[in-house]
Design brief:
Two copies of one chain form a homodimer. By secondary structure, the first copy, chain A, is of the alpha+beta class. Chain A has six helices and ten strands. Chain A has a six-stranded mixed sheet with strand order 1-4-5-7-8-10, sandwiched between helices. Chain A has a two-stranded antiparallel sheet with strand order 2-3. In chain A, a hairpin with a 4-residue loop joins β7 and β8. The termini of chain A are far apart. The interface between A and B is large, with 57 and 57 residues. β3 of chain A pairs antiparallel with β3 of chain B, so a sheet runs across the interface.
Chain lengths: 217, 217
Amino acid sequence: MKFPSGVKKNETIKHATKNEAIKSKDSKKKNLGKANLGMNLEEMINESNTYYLVNDIAVIHKKPTPIQIVKVDYPSRTKAVITEAYYKTPSTTDYNGLYKGKYIDFDAKENHNKTAFPLANIHPHQVNHLRMIAKHGGIAFMIISFNQYNEFYFVPIDLILEYWDKAYNNGERKSIPYSIFKENCHLIKEGYMPRLNYLKTIDELYFNNDNKNLEIK
Amino acid sequence: MKFPSGVKKNETIKHATKNEAIKSKDSKKKNLGKANLGMNLEEMINESNTYYLVNDIAVIHKKPTPIQIVKVDYPSRTKAVITEAYYKTPSTTDYNGLYKGKYIDFDAKENHNKTAFPLANIHPHQVNHLRMIAKHGGIAFMIISFNQYNEFYFVPIDLILEYWDKAYNNGERKSIPYSIFKENCHLIKEGYMPRLNYLKTIDELYFNNDNKNLEIK
């Protein structure tokens, strides 16, 4: 059995994109903080979603990576083997689901930069999709990590749109400074179960009338 | 270029499962009613979703088919070719999204039977998923066609659960009679744009206080 370059034999890729495979490799090297036990951001979110699902708290799934299938072989009547396929650009975000009757939609971005989050990490279709979600009454956001500080921020789409539109309409800076996250965004609480309790942040921001000056405990 | 058996050269499979490919072939033969212009149910729904998206009515997408990737080749630094992969059983339904602030979740089932809809067409994980969606406040349903009559029914998950639980807990019949659809379900209006206006049915069922004795115009 052959594996993609850079992926060891015992790290069978389950349902990962090329980027995810690369990301996974990177973060295993760079992101070995105690708190997340060597997990990358995607793994932490997937584990949290499983926790939410099993405990009947929310139904949030990662969407499968879209694949363009070109060639399928049928070695037997019941077996299908895809023998030629390509990664496609997704038209939406990676995660969506349902929490307390509300539609939830987000993407997760791992960031190794110390001073800012470069907007180049976001694809235009993701911004467009989240813009529409917010417009139609869903909860749209991104989870952005600052791996150098082992911090995970809950970033409402409004903040991203502000910088995105300034960058691509007015030609301003194409990144969001770290200080903006520090001052305006909510740190997501890390723990053992769930690993990354982003629904607690949603509780405080969207399901609590007294949501000024929030402090995550 | 090689194509899966049974699929003609000009019908390139875009992102279809084995079942979808088979379904597509079947329905092209059997489902050539004038109203749907030879489209199968999935194609009609996808076209309707595009209409809803483009016209800023709702954001509803088909989830990509989950694929287990085993082998990826990199003929160049920027190109990835998947050379061995398998279809996986999805853990959710095919469609979800957002309409008027509500989370929408459904599956579509093409049915060639004249007298009933066999429950064997539904996978247990789909029922479990829709059961949870309803419990958490989403709109959970199935779109079930009776191709022999060129009819498309909006079937709330409650009705399916009633028959499902009777069948698998009490050993009763493992199908829903056609008469039940006729008497208790809502016909989805077919048209040119959108092809299958299932959001109109949702309007009448969920966004209208006077939703008794509904009649689709």
